[in-house]
Structure formats: structure tokens, C-alpha cells
UniProtKB/TrEMBL annotation:
Name recorded for this polypeptide: Ribosomal RNA small subunit methyltransferase I
Gene Ontology terms, MF aspect: rRNA (cytosine-2'-O-)-methyltransferase activity
Subcellular location as annotated: Cytoplasm
InterPro entries: 4pyrrol_Mease (IPR000878), 4pyrrol_Methylase_sf (IPR035996), 4pyrrole_Mease_sub1 (IPR014777), 4pyrrole_Mease_sub2 (IPR014776), rRNA_ssu_MeTfrase_I (IPR008189), SAM_MeTrfase_RsmI_CS (IPR018063)
SUPFAM superfamilies assigned to the protein according to its UniProt record, in alphabetical order: Tetrapyrrole methylase
Alphabetical UniProt keywords: Cytoplasm, Methyltransferase, rRNA processing, S-adenosyl-L-methionine, Transferase
Amino acid sequence: MTGPALPHVTLVPTPVGNLGDLTLRAIEVLKTADAVACEDTRRSGALLRYLGIHKPLVRLDAHTLRDRAPGTLEKYPRLAYVSDAGTPGISDPGAELLTLALSLGGTAEVLPGATAFVPALVLSGLSTARFTFEGFLPRSGRERRERLSALARRQETSILYESPHRLAATLGDLTGVCGEARRGSVTRELSKLHEETRRGTLGELAQVFSSGARGEIVVVIEGAPEPSQQSNTPSADFHALARQWAREGKSSRDIRQLLVAAGLRKNDAYALSLAVTNPDEPTGAAPSGA
């Protein structure tokens, strides 16, 4: 008597826009799978109907995967998984499903295919030699500030996803920590009819998209200059940024941290942050440990 079949999970990329980007191999896997798991049965169901594929469709999203995945793999050992768009495993539970299949003694594969951040990186015109993919930034709070600060200091190109209604705020934050002169790009609606890539300084991009934008968005940010190229004295740009943050009501400590993240030396950042928040008080060197 044989036991249950070991699971085999295939992560199948789906188009980020143009349906012509779906590969022949992806279609074949969807046709031969026992079932197709997905984040949104309505969206993935429409794709399967377009392809003329009739397979059981199982919802396995971030909220349901842990409860449903073991039973799904037992019922449908040869399982294909698709996300809403692009290659599964990034910003969706595809990687967790793959890990579960392996832990059960099964096998897994990931098909090459559509993704948004690689085309956006190349379209940006910025360095592709080294880069970091950030995914989505935290929406608020300390974790967001820390991620932005780390991004500002990073010397390789950074890439992140953003939603249309948060784009303006994120570009404003990036301008604040990286400086207005740092270059970047915004790509939206990749591979769709209204695909657009805007390139420029972060200050320029913040103005262009001050009212937000439509569509799915990828932001690419130039890496920080080498330490030897960074200013050791507060430039006009640093003064302008510090005054802007003071007008926004930020504290001296917050301004100092933002200036350091933007590349200013700690002592200079300390003095400048005090100057803009307490203009009538003399400033000096930062206290020990500041």
C-alpha cells in the first residue's frame, strides 16, 4: 500500500501587465497541475479562463496559507502557485508555500518570468552593478525611519515598490533623507498601455508626483556617493533641508538624525539642527556620545 504522494510546488510567474509576457512553459505547468493556488481567485480565475484552462482554484493568501496549505498539498500534490502579478515569492506567501512543500519531503521549482523591479532598474539609467530590492517600505513609525536612513547611506542602487496614494509622501521622505540632488526614477504601469518612466533628481520627482500617480509603481534611487566625495561642512542644500524640517515641526534630534542619514558629519548635523530650532542660542560641538 502506497502512502500519499509527496508534494511538488511550482511557482509560476504571471504578467505584470501585458498578457503576451506569459511564457509557454508557464502555460504548460498551469495545464498539467492538479490545481492552481493563488492570492485572489477572481483575478487568477480570469487569467485561467483567458487561457482556456479549467483547474481547481484554491485561495492561499497571507491570511489563509498556514491553515489551508497542508490540506491543499495533500489533496493536490502537484500544485501550481501564482500571485496577483509577477514572480511569486516577493510580497506574497509563495516562498512560504515552497518552504512547506520542502519540509514535507516534497520538491519545488520556480519558473523564470515576469517581474517589475528588474525592468524598472534598467529603465532608470542608474547603476545596475549592485542594487538592493527593498520591496514595500513600512507605512510609518520607527521602522520606516530606520529603513529610510539605511537606504540613504547605502552606496548601491535601491529599488522599492510603492502604492499610488503613498508615492508623494515616500518621495518627500526620500528627498528629506537623501537630499534633493540624489537621482532617481519612477516607473509605473510597466508593460501596460500607459507605461511611463520619469527620471530626475528626487526633488524634481517629488514635485512631478506631488499629487500621486495611478498604477503600480517602482521607485529606483541612486546610491550614496563614496565617503570621500561627501561634504564635511554643511552646504546650502543641508541648510535648506534643515530649515524645511524645522518649519514642519520636527525636533532638533529628528533633524540631526535626518542630516546624518543624508551624509552630513555628526558634529555638523548637531550644530545645524540646533541652529534651525533654536536660532537665538549659540551652538558648539556635539556632546560626547551624541
